[in-house]
């Protein structure tokens, strides 16, 4: 299966630059295009791309904010972020790297150089993916590659497939075992844009879906607990 690259296009020129198209072909990347940040965020949750590229972008405060928002999305924290910029300075490059970019390339650039830079990013992403899979928290193991959760219980193992949103939510809890996480915190870090969410109880729906997959009895949870008036907490069940 080819690796995916999510390309956030410049709205003023909504076409993939020829040099990026050639470099993607050389690297065997499957391109997916987004015209704005909300669309890119939604696609990122579904695609879990290896690489996210801001193509032909002038470095502006708005782009810096977009990069910051993309980096907050838990589901794609291992995706590499590449800025292919126009009209930028060395100071802009520093700001982009500080905002979370993994590489910042100034146009004009050759397809050969861009391909080499992309290959370097893919190598670093491979190393990170290897280190991160699986994630363990007590009797739970989260397999990023297959988007599955494995539960060990009384010597037996059970695996369940997760949706992208379920995966992101469970990963967020597993990174913070024992911590009470409020609905607002989960919305702010895992849903984007928050302003488009009509019913904030959507978190409760996904909590229930996770309980159906990780609890012996989702109506009487022993792992993913409700702290009334505070939020939710992932704990290890009592023996």
UniProtKB/TrEMBL annotation:
A Pfam family this chain is assigned to: Trans_reg_C
GO molecular function, one term: phosphorelay response regulator activity
GO biological processes: regulation of DNA-templated transcription
Modification sites for 4-aspartylphosphate: 55
Domain of life: Bacteria
Entry coiled-coil feature ranges: none
Known DNA-binding region: 132-236
Matching InterPro entries: CheY-like_superfamily (IPR011006), OmpR/PhoB-type_DNA-bd (IPR001867), Sig_transdc_resp-reg_C-effctor (IPR016032), Sig_transdc_resp-reg_receiver (IPR001789), WalR-like (IPR039420), WH-like_DNA-bd_sf (IPR036388)
Boundaries of every OmpR/PhoB-type domain copy: 132-236
Official protein name in the record: Two-component system, OmpR family, alkaline phosphatase synthesis response regulator PhoP/two-component system, OmpR family, response regulator VicR
Organism: Granulicella rosea
